[in-house]
Amino acid sequence: MKIRYLVILLFVFSLLSVFIGVSNVTPLDLFSLTDAQKQVLLVSRVPRLFSIVIAGMSMSIVGLIMQQLSRNKFVSPTTAGTLDSARLGILVSMMIFTAASPLQKMLVSFAFALAGTFIFMKILDKVKFKDAVFIPLVGLMFGNIISSISTFFAYQNDLIQNMSSWMQGDFSMIMSGNYELMFISIPLLFIAYLYANKFTIAGMGEDFSKSLGLKYRQVVNLGLIISALVTASVVLSVGVIPFLGLIIPNIVTIYQGDHLKNTLIHTALLGAVFVLFCDIVGRVVIYPYEIPISLTVGVIGSGIFIYLLLRRKKYGL
Description:
The protein is mostly helical. It contains 14 helices and no strands. The chain has helices at 3-19, 35-70, 82-96, 102-126, 134-156, 160-167, 185-194, 196-202, 206-211, 216-237, 244-256, 260-284, 293-310, 312-315. The protein is globular and about 65 Å long.
């Protein structure tokens, strides 16, 4: 799929996203907006659109980076315990730092997400069987252990409802003033683009990378730091969006190849288009109510994931 087609889809879905909702705002109203319509657009619809695009792009690229560094096409924040670790970090920040600001919560969440990802990578080094399906199963088990710890402490501190809200990704509560933390992903994605070639070399293995003069450990650590920071900001702002960083990079790889720099822009655009599509579906299926994005992405994404698993030998995944 060419980039221009993805850009056209992104533009079309963005327009649909802005004008779909209970409050009636049409494209013709843009020429004579009332104060109420201006509030709807500037306070709710436009921030929601920005958050969807940023979340779709950033989580897809994070999944691509993790797959490249781990040399496994089924590793992502969902299957490596990164999302669960970030959620545990937010819980700890609420338990210990009761008056913590969103930025402080994100930093604690980042520390836990980074630690969880490093632990998973260490487990990956110790695993003898490198089967493409076995590795993400280990990651899912690792994530479930962390999730169980989170649930235990949440029950102990009467925070189970708060924790449940992070389990369910939802853009309906996004408004001006409570999503800006996600903008931290933009410079991180730019850094990822600059280091794309190095991530590609690092994905070929430590010995090969060092033979080419690459500082392997530094590059891997940078990739994991980017993954942890992006995941923490998205989980804190939106909640958990499953399968996104897993399926989008695999779809792009099928038609674009494995070179990270060549696939990065495609992955970002397709991720944004996919999340926008799922969000629009969730808003129109039971209109005027809406289905959380985690449910629509989970249902569609799990179907695509199963298909990729069944056809992985054909596509070389």
